[in-house]
Each structure stands twice: as C-alpha cells, then as structure tokens.
C-alpha cells in the first residue's frame, strides 16, 4: 500500500502557493519544496557573474557547475548556493523582475527539473511552482492549480512590503502581470493548468480555508490509493 503521496501546487505569482504549500506540508508531516526559490537562486548566480538570460552558452556552463541545496527548516526551507545562505537575497526586486527571463532557458529548466524530480522520488513532498503538475511530477497523486485575480494577488504582495522595499500597488500589479505573461507564453514548460489538476480560485478564501481544503483532498487520495 502507498502511505505517502506527492502534491503539486502550480499557479501565478502571489496566488498563495508557498504560504499554503508550507502549511499543507506541516499538517501532513511532508517536506515542502519551493521550486521558485531554485529559479531565483540561479538568477542571482547569473547576475553575480554578469551573465544575461540571453547568453545561452554561458548560462549552460554556469548551470553545469551549479551547487544548490535546499535544507528543510522548522518554518520552511533554507536555500544554500555554493554553501552561502541566499534565502533572503533571492527575494530582491532585482531577482524578482528578471527571474522569468532566466527561467525560460532550456538548460536551466532541465537541470532544476531533474533536481526537483530527485527530491520528490521518495514521496511525501508538497512542491510548488509553475510546471510541477505538467512537467516535473506529471504522476503526482494530487495536483492543485491555485490562482486569484491579479488585483488580489498584487494587493497581497503589496501588504508584505515595508519602507525599505516599498513599491506602489499599481507598479507591483504591472510587474506581476508581466511576469505571468512571460511564464504563460514561454516555449518550454509554460505555466498552464494540468488537465487533472483541481482548480482553486482563492480570491475570496482565507489561507486556512485553502489549506484545509487541500489537506482534505490529500487525505482522500491517500485513502483512495491505499485501498
Ligand atoms: O513567489 P513568486 O510567485 O513571486 O515566484 P516564485 O514562485 O518564487 O517563482 C519565481 C519565478 O520562477 C516565476 O515567475 C517563474 O518564472 C519561475 N519558475 C518557473 O519557471 N518554474 C517553476 N516551477 C517555478 C518558478
Ligand atoms: O507563492 P505565491 O507567489 O503563490 O504566493 P505567496 O508567496 O504565498 O504570497 C501570498 C500572500 O498572500 C501571502 O502574504 C499570504 O499571507 C497571502 N494570502 C494567501 O496566501 N492566501 C489567501 N487566501 C489570502 C492571503
């Protein structure tokens, strides 16, 4: 019998994927994997090396020597890039506004996709991203497509800001919409709902409601597959 499943959560920026995935993982005693953080770490590394997203050959070389580790912590995960803790650094605006360009590169996607599949190989994983249900874990037992209106997603992200990283709401909304568009229209593994994913618009839902809904779906899958 199967006692653990993999849960894939995909959707656009600010839908609540990481907040919800972290809590679902905690409730089920599963491990949370934030794949967006991996694309962000590669972006930081490339920027530090002065490599632009269009420099495919240089990016390829950089990716071959990539040393990236995810360390689960009590509250989420720590991102180690060549043994440096970059968990906070990868949230910068510089990374956020450029990451979708780097994420469109085929070597980057191949390398990170392989790492993600390896991380999920023993099940008991809640993984969030853009292409988890469609490309990385097409066999995940439970797939969720989490979304909310772009206005609501921008509002949520705006609330997280403080004085030192303040951006006007309108600008944040435009940046989120631009990133969504890049992610949805790229050639390789674009952001799209998997056919067998459960669609969830969280515009009018609380975090707790979303979490308990997904946990219930997970528990019924567990009962289903272990029969
Ligand atoms: O948290 P937020 O929604 O702002 O973004 P994220 O999940 O950290 O992902 C950052 C970017 O990485 C996305 O906009 C995508 O361009 C890319 N990404 C991807 O291409 N595939 C994934 N599985 C995860 C992230
Ligand atoms: O990972 P993703 O970009 O999809 O979203 P996130 O980084 O989890 O950010 C979502 C933000 O909206 C967080 O500040 C949450 O507290 C908030 N939020 C939510 O996630 N879900 C709701 N139903 C309502 C608010």
UniProtKB/TrEMBL annotation:
Highest taxon of source: Bacteria
Reactions accelerated catalytically: dCMP + ATP = dCDP + ADP; CMP + ATP = CDP + ADP
E.C. number(s) listed in UniProt: 2.7.4.25
EC class: transferase
Cell compartment(s), UniProt: Cytoplasm
Principal location: cytoplasm
Annotated Gene3D superfamilies: P-loop containing nucleotide triphosphate hydrolases (3.40.50.300)
Keywords assigned by UniProt, alphabetized: ATP-binding, Cytoplasm, Kinase, Nucleotide-binding, Transferase
Ranges where the Cytidylate kinase domain occurs: 7-217
Residues involved in ATP binding: 11-19
SUPFAM superfamilies for the chain: P-loop containing nucleoside triphosphate hydrolases
GO MF: kinase activity
Presence of keyword DNA repair: no
HAMAP family, sorted: Cytidyl_kinase_type1
Similarity comment text for this entry: Belongs to the cytidylate kinase family. Type 1 subfamily.
Protein name: Cytidylate kinase
Organism: Paenibacillus septentrionalis
Encoding gene per record: cmk
């Amino acid at each position: 019998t199967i006692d653990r499943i993999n849960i894939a959560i995909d959707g656009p920026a600010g839908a609540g994927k990481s907040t919800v995935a972290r809590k679902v993982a905690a409730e089920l005693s599963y491990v949370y994997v934030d794949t967006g953080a991996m694309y962000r770490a590669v972006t930081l590394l490339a920027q530090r090396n002065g490599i632009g997203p269009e420099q495919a050959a240089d990016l390829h070389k950089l990716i071959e020597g990539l040393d990236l580790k995810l360390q689960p912590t009590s509250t989420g995960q720590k991102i180690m890039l060549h043994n440096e803790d970059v968990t906070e650094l990868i949230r910068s605006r510089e990374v956020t506004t450029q990451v979708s360009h780097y994420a469109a590169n085929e070597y980057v996607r191949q390398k990170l996709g392989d790492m993600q599949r390896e991380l999920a190989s023993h099940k008991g994983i809640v993984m969030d991203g853009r292409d988890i249900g469609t490309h990385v874990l097409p066999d995940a037992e439970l797939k969720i497509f989490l979304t909310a209106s772009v206005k609501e997603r921008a509002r949520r992200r705006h609330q997280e800001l403080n004085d030192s990283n303040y951006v006007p709401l309108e600008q944040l909304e435009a940046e989120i919409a631009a990133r969504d568009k890049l992610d949805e229209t790229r050639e390789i593994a674009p952001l799209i709902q998997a056919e067998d994913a459960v669609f969830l618009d969280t515009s009018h839902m609380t975090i707790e409601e979303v979490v308990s809904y997904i946990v219930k779906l997970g528990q019924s899958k567990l009962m289903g597959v272990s029969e």
